[in-house]
Amino acid sequence: MGNETAGDKPQRYMLLAPPCIWAIFERELISVSTIWKFNMIITKKKDFQKILEYLKNKNKIFLYGCNSCAEQCETGGEKEIKEMTLLLENAGKNVTGFSLPDETCYSMIIKKDFREQKKTIEGSDAILVLACGAGVKAVSDTAGDEKPVFPALDSLYLANVTRYGHFFEGCALCGECVLGETGGICPHTNCPKGLLNGPCGGMADGKCEVNIENDCVWVRIYTRLKKQGRLDVLKKIAPAKDYSSGVRPRNTIVESRIKNKKQEDK
Ligand code: SF4
Ligand code: SF4
After folding, report:
1. How far apart are CA 144 and CA 138, in angstroms?
2. Could you tell me the residue range of the domain that residue 176 belongs to?
3. pLDDT tens for each residue of 59-69
4. Which of 142, 158, 192, 246 has a beta carbon 3.0–4.6 Å from 175's, enabling a disulfide?
5. pTM for the complete prediction?
6. Count of structural domains within the chain
7. Which atom of ligand 1 is nearest to the CA of 186?
8. Residues 129 and 27 in one domain
9. Could you identify the atom of ligand 2 that is nearest to the CA of residue 190?
10. pLDDT digits (tens, 9 = 90+) for 26-43
11. How far, in Å, is the centroid of ligand 2 from the Cα of 189?
C-alpha cells in the first residue's frame, strides 16, 4: 500500500487465509469483515474540543480509522475520516494523510501499514485514531515512545448486532461465564446492579427499578428456565465472583493456532 493523502480512496487489506477459504467467501459473497461484524465494539465520538486540546501545538496530523466496528458505528469509517479531516483543516491543522485498515486492533496489520506509510507518519507531529481503545493501543505501540498518538473516540462496550444499525450490549467480558446457570441471559450485562442470585427488592411488576423500560433480568431468567424445566438451577447460590480470572491486562495465547501456522509455513 502506498502513501495515502486525505481524499484518496482508502486501501483495504487482505488477511492471510487459505485460497479455498477465499474461494468460498467469493462464491458466497461474504467478506471476513461482514462475519466479524456480528459482534463488535461500540464507540462514540469524543468532543472535538477535547481533540483540539490533545492536538495543541501539533500541526501535522496523520489519521487512522477502522473499517470494521468503528465504520459500522459511523465513528471511524471513510465518511468520518473525511469529516475529521475537514474539521481539523478548518481548525488550522494540516492533515498529512490517513489510513483505514480493515481491523485497526490487529497489531500486525498496523505494523505493516506503518512500514508502508513510514515517510508520511515520520513527517507528522501526531496521530489521531478513530477506532476503539484496542485500535489506539495497536497504533500507539507501533508508533513507539516518540510519536504522540491520541484517541478520537470513546470505547463503550462489546455488542451483538441485533438488526442492521441496532447494537445491544451482549457480554461484559467478566471472565467467568454464568450463562449455563441463567438460561443464556447474562445478569452481569443486563442487571444494572450485576446481581447474581435473583432480583433485588426494587423489582416491581417484572420491571427493573433502575430502568423501568426494561424487564428485570431475573424475571427473564426465571421465565426462561421455567420453560426449559430447569428451575432447580436457581436453588444453587452463585458464589462470589472470582475476579482473579479477569486480572488486567489479560492475554491469551492459542498454542494450536501457532503450531498450525508454523506447519503451514514449512
Ligand atoms: S456471564 Fe455475562 S459478562 Fe460474563 S462472560 Fe458470560 S455473558 Fe459475558
Ligand atoms: S430490578 Fe432486577 S435487573 Fe433491576 S437492578 Fe434489581 S435485580 Fe437488577
Report:
1. 10
2. 171-242
3. 999 999 999 99
4. 246
5. 0.80
6. 2
7. 2
8. yes
9. 3
10. 433 333 444 444 568 999
11. 11
